[in-house]
Amino acid sequence: MTAPDDPLDDLARELRASTGDEFALEAEAGEREAQQGRLRARTTADVLTEAMHRGDRVRARVAGLVVTGTVA
């Protein structure tokens, strides 16, 4: 058994904490990259469907024609 003020206990505690922090940061980065991938894979129809469900107003410009309104 080790003494309560053993410096190795402090070192072990610091190493466990830093390893946990590294895993958390790595997982967060992975989640962020996965979300970016999902956003990049969306089609125009996907974006418009989301806008329709939120009731957003949109503006589309095609060949010089501008259409503004809600998606129905």
Characterization of the model:
Strand 1 (57-62) and strand 2 form a beta hairpin. The termini are far apart. This protein has helices at residues 7-40, 44-54; strands at 57-62, 65-70. A two-stranded antiparallel sheet has the order 1-2. The longest helix is centred in the N-terminal third of the chain and has 34 residues, at 7-40. The protein is of the alpha+beta class and 72 residues long. The chain has two domains: 1-41; 44-72, no CATH class.
What's this, in brief?
With 72 residues, the protein is α+β, with helices and mostly antiparallel strands. Helices cover 62% and strands 17% of the residues.
Ordered list of secondary-structure elements with their pairings:
Elements: H1 7-40, H2 44-54, E1 57-62, E2 65-70
Antiparallel strand pairs: 1-2
Overall average residue pLDDT: 88
Shape: rod-shaped
For the largest beta sheet, what order do the strands appear in spatially? 1-2
N-C termini distance: 71 Å
Strand content: 15-25%
Q: What does the main sheet amount to?
A: 2 strands, antiparallel
Q: Rg from C-alpha positions?
A: 25 Å
Strand pairing plus helix content: what structural class?
Answer: alpha+beta
| Beta strands, count | 2
Sequence of secondary-structure elements: HHEE
Question: pLDDT below 50 for ≥5 consecutive residues: which ranges?
Answer: none
Oligomer: single chain
Quickly count the domains. 2
Report helical residue fraction.
Answer: 55-70%
The helix tally amounts to 2
